[in-house]
Specification:
Blueprint: E1 7-9, H1 14-24, E2 28-31, H2 37-42, E3 50-53, E4 63-66, E5 69-73, H3 78-82, H4 85-90, H5 92-98, H6 104-109, H7 112-118, H8 124-131, E6 135-140, E7 143-148, H9 149-152, E8 153-155, E9 158-159, E10 166-173, E11 179-186, E12 196-205, E13 208-217, E14 224-225, H10 227-233, H11 240-253, H12 264-286
Parallel strand pairs: 1-3, 2-3
Antiparallel strand pairs: 4-5, 5-10, 6-7, 6-10, 8-9, 11-12, 12-13, 13-14
Helix pairs in contact: 5-8, 10-11, 11-12
Length: about 290
């Protein structure tokens, strides 16, 4: 199919893009990598009157470590994040999560900020960012503000950003010293949307879990942290039985929606298994 008619805008600066968003509001849509938006346009599931292409906006495609934090410009390509040695060393959870994102052609064009703004609860990056306590910097002609994952993700494909706001930067603090992470998911074919998955960040000291952060894919209408599974691990020596208990706790907290690919009960069980696998993998990496 062909997309509906729209007026195309190609701003060169952040200020120009923000002015356009301020002028057109709900009638405008930002085009970043286009890997999600273009299919929505072609299937006539999105009807923007104005398409604001930010691919030529200067200064939004960076990736750098700065005073212990990773700063990612919203237009940084997913493949840049995937292949960064600096990210692999300091933020290995993001590197591992990227290996599950679609296919190389998609990652070459798709942007980190676009994946976040699309807010698909089955997407890998939003869940990984939620585990890493990420800050999201958004901007409009009215000013700037910073949102946490809990504040940003509202429901399926919906964020707390206003229609005149643009995501400009993603800031990720370094994981605690001595921590280890793991990312696992299950899909019908590699590159398909995940039927369930888990991102885990553990800090283990003296053989016991000092802190735990566990995020779930395809478990709710947003990326979700599982407080029950996290609490089950803290203060304990992690073994298979404890990892199973954490998976059971995660399953008990969620009420996923079933579809043609799997019932709600199937997804609950699957996500519990994914949590167990991710916990064991992270614990093994922590030594």
């Amino acid at each position: 199919m062909k997309p509906p008619k729209f007026e195309y805008h190609n701003p060169a600066t952040v200020d120009e893009a923000l002015t356009l968003l301020g002028e057109h509001g709900d009638d405008g849509k930002v085009l970043a990598g286009g890997q999600s938006l273009v299919p929505l346009l072609n299937f006539r599931l999105a009807y923007p009157e104005h398409l604001i292409d930010v691919n030529d906006v200067e200064g939004l495609d960076y990736l750098r470590a700065d005073n212990g934090s990773l700063r990612i410009g919203a237009m940084c390509r997913q493949s840049t994040l995937e292949h960064s040695d600096e990210v692999a060393k300091g933020w290995p959870l993001l590197t591992e999560a990227m290996t599950y994102v679609a296919h190389p052609q998609i990652r070459n064009r798709g942007t980190v900020g676009g994946s976040v703004a699309h807010a698909d609860p089955a997407a890998e990056l939003p869940v990984a960012f939620s585990v890493l306590d990420t800050k999201f910097h958004v901007q409009s002609t009215r000013g700037k503000r910073t949102l946490t994952a809990d504040e940003l993700f509202v429901t399926h494909l919906t964020t707390a950003m206003e229609s005149d706001e643009l995501l400009v930067e993603i800031e990720v603090d370094a994981p605690p010293a001595g921590s280890a992470s793991a990312f696992v998911e299950f899909s019908r074919r590699h590159g398909d949307f995940a039927l369930g998955g888990a991102a885990v960040l553990l800090k283990i000291d003296g053989g016991k879990c000092e802190s735990a952060a566990i995020g779930l894919l395809s478990a709710a209408s947003t990326p979700v942290r599982t407080s029950g599974a996290e609490a089950a691990l803290v203060g304990q020596a992690i073994d298979e039985a404890l990892a199973t208990a954490a998976g059971d706790a995660a399953s008990a907290e969620i009420d996923p929606t079933g579809d043609i690919h799997g019932s709600a009960d199937y997804r609950k069980h699957l996500i519990g298994v994914m949590v167990k696998r991710a916990v064991l993998s992270a614990a093994e990496r922590a030594g």
